Amino acid sequence: MRDDFEKLSGLTPPKASAEARARALAAAMQSFDEAEKNSSATQGSSFPVRQSSIFNRIWSPIMNRKLLAGSALATLLVVPAAAFLTFELTRDGAPFGERAQEIALKDETRKDEKRQKPEPQATAKKAVAEERARQEAKTVETPVAAPVESEAAAPAADAMANSVARDSVAPLSATGGMQPRMTFLPAPVVQEEMQPAPEHNRERFGKAESNPVKSVVTDPVSTFSVDVDTASYAFVRRSLMEGQLPERDAVRVEEMVNYFPYDWPRPESAAQPFKATVTVTPTPWNGGTRLMHVAIKGYDVVRTQAPKANLVFLIDVSGSMDEPDKLPLLKGAFRLLVEKLKPEDTVSIVTYAGNAGTVLEPTAVKDKAKILAAIDTLQPGGSTAGAEGIDAAYALAEKAFVKGGVNRVMLATDGDFNVGPSSDEDLKRLIEEKRKSGIFLSVLGFGRGNYNDALMQTIAQNGNGTAAYIDTLAEAQKTLVEEAGSSLFPIAKDVKLQVEFNPAAITEYRLIGYETRALKREDFNNDKVDAGDIGSGHSVTAIYEVTPKGSPAVLNDDLRYAEAEKPVAEASPNSGELAFLKIRYKKPDGDKSELITTPVTEANTVPALVEAPEDVRFSVAVAAFGQKLSGVTALADYTYDAVIDLAAASKGADPFGYRSEFVNLVRLAKGLGGSKN
Fold it and tell me: Which of the residue ranges 102-106, 442-446, 546-550 would you say has the lowest mean pLDDT?
């Protein structure tokens, strides 16, 4: 027998004909469909015929046997068998019945593969075609589902059917088993009105158009107040770091330029609180114009000689300050400042929310632990009664007033004043009245979302103080520690600049920035008109773009009815001047202004920008960047790459990394600006 089997195993079976293969395939398919009796049901159908038929075929013969029905033996044999069968059908995490469905799906897949496999012989093709026709006929005979009751319900019914069909067969796991099915129900449709509305941006910025090009013939004098604020630069930096270009109204070019420390020539003594240096260079973005660069450096008070300081921290603890970049950052900033003060200086703390309250009476810095503990207790909550807080802070500052010293209120807020006088004009009048007491006011802005820059600018400008924006603890370190002298100790107040251009040398001019600091010509000599203040060691930079006489870059036509220009005598002492700079200021405790004048001549010019000092070139790069961000058309063709090259080549000594950071910000703006580069 064994020899017979070995002989048979060595024989080669006859090759099946194509016709025989086709007949076998057709017969197998027909037999399968007759056994299933549900060939019209598709995989994933909401009517689970296929799952039920397979289960019943296994289960029914056991339950219907007379030997087991109704006997104890059924309990002993059938129940364990059912448990084992259930385990097999549901193992690998598949829901009940899905394992059987997986088997059916594999059979159906194999059937489809055979059905679609091309046959080389014509007879085989005919057999397959006939089988496909029969299957299509059965599909047509499938009962149509009941109609949806309303048109509105139709999309939901379709979504349900599609979801069940999509979820009926779970994907295979890495081990070959079936993954658990997530859900049989369609995902809920979220209506548009259910989406949470984005937080409304209530940030406010003062609106000011860029300074126009003016004709020297009709308007030869330019007058403005100095500005040593830096809030705009810090806000622009934060916007760029968050991946968005800043609002144009948030960009104040002069504040961006004055953010950086410069090593301008210093005054020799406090008798003259600051010195002006003028440099005239070619304009990098316009070959037909020149830049008149005016740099002012304040006298730097030695810390040991600094007067005693009486500071009142006026802190907004309203509900809007309950953000990580607001009150917690504010507390860290003031802790840094306390560490910088001298032991004999005094600190008071006033908070305001629904109403104002005194947290700390005037306390000497030598009792530092008490001051820091008071700062740590601050908690946010309530509305914002800013005006009431200002009243309380000034009252406390007057209580501890130091004659001949520094008396300053330091307001820290996001600017959201919503209780009491809150309009810019109301608060402006309140601050103007308070400054008569000799107490200055500075503003530290925090946070995003409801940052009220316009209001804080108004308060600082009318309180003989400065405005800064604190977006990081590093910025607090820069503003309140590294630049504590300039932030706290004023060396001059009501500082005004006035430039008169010589029409024989200059045809047109444009002041870059200082739009919100413009003054009337007659305001320059009016000591009742308020202006900006300069602190110890402060740097102030102003840049004019001027058009020389005869340049092709002149934009304004000559006046038709203007009188013929009178020739300037060669012997005139002013014939060689391009312009005449005048600076008027008051001493911190004075009421009468003093005057400093500086003529601008060709001796102030350099033939090429690269020959100008590094600080001049870097400040020009910052001015170019600010103008591009604010949309000044004169720089439309001057690219961010050009700004980067100019700034990178003129960084010079950069001990704190501010200038390197600036170059990176320009790169960010270039990427965010897209084609506007």
Answer: 102-106
CA distance 618 to 615: 5
Measure CA 391 to chain center: 35
The reply to whether domains 215-301+490-550+574-673 and 305-487 share a CATH topology is: no
Answer whether 470's CB lies under 8 Å from 325's CB.
no
438's CB contacts (< 8 A; 6+ apart) are 401, 407, 589
Q: Compute CA distances 400 → 314, 396, 404, 589, whole Å.
A: 15, 7, 13, 17
Please say whether the beta carbons of 460 and 493 come within 8 A.
no
pTM of the model: 0.69
**pLDDT average, residue stretch 34-63:** 47
Tens digits of residue pLDDT in 593-631: 999 999 999 999 999 999 999 999 999 999 999 999 999
Which is it for strands 532-535 and 356-364: parallel, antiparallel or unpaired?
unpaired
Are the C-beta atoms of residues 44 and 169 closer than 8 Å to each other? yes
Domain boundaries, the chain: 18-167, 215-301+490-550+574-673, 305-487
Distance CA 40, CA 413 (A): 72
Q: How do beta strands 406-413 and 309-316 pair?
A: parallel
- What's the topology of domain 215-301+490-550+574-673? Immunoglobulin-like (2.60.40)
Confidence of residue 95 (pLDDT cuts 50, 70, 90): very low
With a cut of 60, say whether residue 669 has pLDDT above it. yes
Give the total residue count for the chain.
677
Helices (H), 117-267: 122-140, 154-167, 231-241, 253-257
Calpha distance 665→677 (Å, rounded): 14
Please measure the distance between the N-terminal and C-terminal CA atoms of the chain and give it in whole angstroms: 92
Domain 305-487 has CATH 3.40.50.410: yes
Is residue 40 within 8 Å of residue 166, measured between CB atoms?
no
Average pLDDT, the chain: 78
